[in-house]
C-alpha cells in the first residue's frame, strides 16, 4: 500500500525538482546592441560594478540591452560571435552571476556577463528624459 503512494509522490515531485535544477526561464526583449569593451573573464559581475572594464583583446565584444517587465539588463558577450537577434523576445535565466540566454528554443545557452541592471521604471524615466533633451533643440529652432 505504501509503494503506490510513494511512486505517485515521486512522479508528482520529479518535475518540480528538475525545474529547480534547470532554472525557470523568463522572457525579455532585445532592444539595443553595440560593440563595446569586453569584461575580463572570471571577474564579470563584480568588476562591472567596481569601475571601468579593462579591454581584454583587440576585438570588441557585443553589448546588449534587454528589457523585461521589471528589470533592464545590459549584458556583454565574451566573444564577438555571440549574436542575439534584435527586436526578439528571448528566454533567459540567472546562473552564477551570469545571464544564460536561449534563443529560438536552441539546445544550448549562451552565457553573458551582466554589466548593468536597472529597475524598469527608472529606465523608462531615463529614456523619456533623453528623448526630451534630444527633441528640445529641434523645437527651439522651429520657433523663430
Q: What distance lies between the first and last C-alpha atoms, to the nearest angstrom?
A: 90 Å
- Beta-strand residue percentage: 25-35%
**CA-based gyration radius:** 21 Å
User: How many helical stretches?
Assistant: 3
The dominant shape is: extended
Secondary structure: number of strands:
6
Oligomeric nature of the chains: single chain
Number of domains: 1
Trace the largest sheet across and list its strands: 1-2-3-6-5-4
Query: Which parts are unreliable, with pLDDT below 50 for 5 consecutive residues or more?
Result: 16-21
Please explain how this structure is put together:
The protein has 144 residues and is α+β, with helices and mostly antiparallel strands. The protein has one domain (24-135). The chain is 35% helix and 32% strand. It has helices at residues 2-22, 44-50, 120-142, and strands at 26-36, 61-67, 71-76, 89-95, 98-102, 110-119. It has a six-stranded antiparallel barrel. Strand 5 and strand 6 (110-119) form a beta hairpin. The radius of gyration is 21 Å and the shape is extended. The relative contact order is 0.16. Residues 16-21 have low confidence and may be disordered.
Provide the descriptors you would attach to this structure in a database record.
six-stranded antiparallel barrel; 144 residues; single chain; alpha+beta; 35% helix
Summarize this structure briefly.
With 144 residues, the protein is an alpha+beta fold.
What's the topology here?
Elements: H1 2-22, E1 26-36, H2 44-50, E2 61-67, E3 71-76, E4 89-95, E5 98-102, E6 110-119, H3 120-142
Antiparallel strand pairs: 1-2, 1-4, 2-3, 3-6, 4-5, 5-6
Amino acid at each position: 500500500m505504501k509503494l503506490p503512494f510513494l511512486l505517485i509522490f515521486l512522479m508528482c515531485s520529479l518535475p518540480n525538482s528538475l525545474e529547480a535544477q534547470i532554472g525557470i526561464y523568463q522572457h525579455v526583449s532585445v532592444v539595443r546592441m553595440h560593440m563595446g569593451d569586453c569584461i575580463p573573464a572570471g571577474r564579470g559581475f563584480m568588476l562591472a560594478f567596481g569601475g571601468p572594464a579593462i579591454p581584454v583583446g583587440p576585438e570588441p565584444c557585443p553589448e546588449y540591452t534587454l528589457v523585461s517587465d521589471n528589470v533592464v539588463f545590459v549584458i556583454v558577450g565574451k566573444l564577438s560571435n555571440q549574436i542575439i537577434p534584435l527586436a526578439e523576445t528571448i528566454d533567459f535565466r540567472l546562473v552564477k552571476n551570469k545571464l544564460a540566454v536561449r534563443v529560438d528554443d536552441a539546445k544550448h545557452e549562451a552565457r553573458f556577463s551582466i554589466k548593468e541592471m536597472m529597475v524598469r521604471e527608472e529606465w523608462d524615466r531615463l529614456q523619456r528624459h533623453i528623448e526630451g533633451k534630444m527633441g528640445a533643440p529641434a523645437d527651439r529652432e522651429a520657433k523663430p
